Amino acid sequence: MNVSRGRNRELVCAAAVLFFGSQLSRPAIAQQEISFLAADSVRVLAHLFSEGADETDRPLIVAFHQAGSNGRGEYAPIADRLLAEGYDLLAVDQRSGGERFGSENLTVAGIGESSDYCAAIPDLRAAVNAARDLRPGVPLVIWGSSYSAALVLRVAAEASPDVVAVLAFSPASGGPMADCRAEEVSDRITIPVLVTRPASEMEHESVTDQAALFRSQGHSVFVSDPGTHGSSMLVAARVEGDVEATWRVVLDFLAASTALR
Known about the structure:
Layout: E1 11-20, E2 29-37, E3 43-50, E4 60-64, H1 71-84, E5 88-93, H2 106-111, H3 121-134, E6 140-145, H4 147-156, E7 163-169, E8 193-198, H5 205-216, E9 220-224, H6 236-239, H7 244-258
Parallel strand pairs: 4-5, 4-6, 6-7, 7-8, 8-9
Antiparallel strand pairs: 1-2, 2-3, 3-5
């Protein structure tokens, strides 16, 4: 399928659809490989986790991974729960990533090497456009992990149509983010924001300062305990502890933001 809609980009859905059994006694999850072009012509790969219907009004979460990672590896353990709660998930492989969590980053494989964190911003913008083409008119939520958590906040500040909320898990702000720090634009975000951090990260002054800034701007900040870095704070095996309290905060935020319930 080639969908351009006059935006000078290409959206391709792979013909093969893989089906995975669900641990929650629901219909099998359809995982569909998607590709699209960023503004600088880099081909970006992503995987769509859904209940299998081509036409649906379910809110779509566009999720981006942390450093050295990839969409499938980071979000496969999270997808089942989101689908059970009524959300579909597009897990994106940005051009800055790798094989963390046991899967290959297909975008990095295509260009031959991983890029700097800030260089991935065009991938996020292109993914939002691709999601809009896949599900016209449905609420879109953008979700980031570590470096991409900072980038989704920057994209949220652009007030992209149909994006109704943003979740940022452990948004990075160190030296490699100097040219794309979320703090530079977070005061411009007008949609609901949830920032999550594990308690262990709140011991750093830069993190507490960032959290205080976000709170002063009206954004929600949640400290997960137990927790771990990035979106993995929703995966019990990675946290080695109970993650239900974190899940409840995330799901309540999604429900309120998308008016699903």
